[in-house]
Amino acid sequence: MVPEWKEAEKALNRIEVIANDNNQPVSVFGDIENLHCIGIGTDAAVFRFDKVPAYAFKVYTSKALSKKEIEENVYIKLEDSMHFPKYFGSGSNYLVLSYEFGVTLYDCLLQGIHIPKQVIVDVENARQFVRNKGLNPRDIHLKNVLLQNGRGKVLDVSEYVQTGNDYRWEHLVWAYDQFYPLIDRVPISSWILETIKHQYYRMDTATLALKEFSQRMKALFLNNKRG
Questions:
Q1: Could you tell me which CATH class the domain 103-226 is placed in?
Q2: Domain 4-98 CATH assignment equals 3.40.50.720
Q3: In angstroms, how far is the first alpha carbon of the chain from the final one?
Q4: What distances in angstroms separate CA 142 from CA 27, 161, 188, one per listed residue?
Q5: Per-residue confidence at 86, pLDDT binned at 50, 70, 90?
Q6: Beta strands 151-154 and 103-104, pairing class
Q7: How far apart are CA 91 and CA 78, in angstroms?
Q8: 64 near 179, Cβ under 8 Å?
C-alpha cells in the first residue's frame, strides 16, 4: 500500500534546494501551489503540503545527502520517544516526519509566552533517551525546542552522531533558573536576543564563566523589562 505522504512527491520534485557558501541558509527555487516552506537551515529546507498536512518534508541539498542518511538513521533509533518528531519514511533527497505544531522557545521569549518548567524536564528526559540509544544530544537551543501543549518537543537531530558536549542546553537551563523569573511573560526584543547569541558564540563555551557573562546580559534583560 502506498503511504499517503507520497501525494507530496510530485510537488517536492519540482522544487530545488541549493546550498550556499559560508554556512549560510539554503536557497529554495520553485513556487508550487499547496507546498509551503516552513523552515530553512544550512543543509535543508522543510516543507508542508496542504493535501497531507500531518507531515513535514525535510528536503536536502545535493551536497548534504550524506547528512540526510545520517539523520534518517538517528530518527529511526529515536522512534520510541514522544519527545521527537516521528519518522515515516524518505525519498531520494528528503525525509518524511510528523508535522509538529507549537512555538519555539525563541519565539516564546519574543512574544512573552510563559515557558513552564515541564519543558525543561521534557528536554532533559529527551537527552537521556538519546544517550541510552548510544547517541549524543548536541545542538539543542531556543530555536529547535517547541512549546507544545505545555510540553517540550525537540527538533533537529542532525548533530547527534557527533562527539563532544557543546554545553548549549546546560547553559540555557542555567539561564532559565537564574534569569527567567525576571522576564517571564515579558516580550524580549529580537535585537537583545541576537546580541546575547552573538556574544555567547564569541566565547569558549567549554570554559564560559557564567557569572561574568550573566552580569553583562542581566542589564540587557532588566533594561528591556523596564522599557
A1: mainly alpha
A2: no
A3: 58
A4: 23, 20, 13
A5: very high
A6: unpaired
A7: 19
A8: no
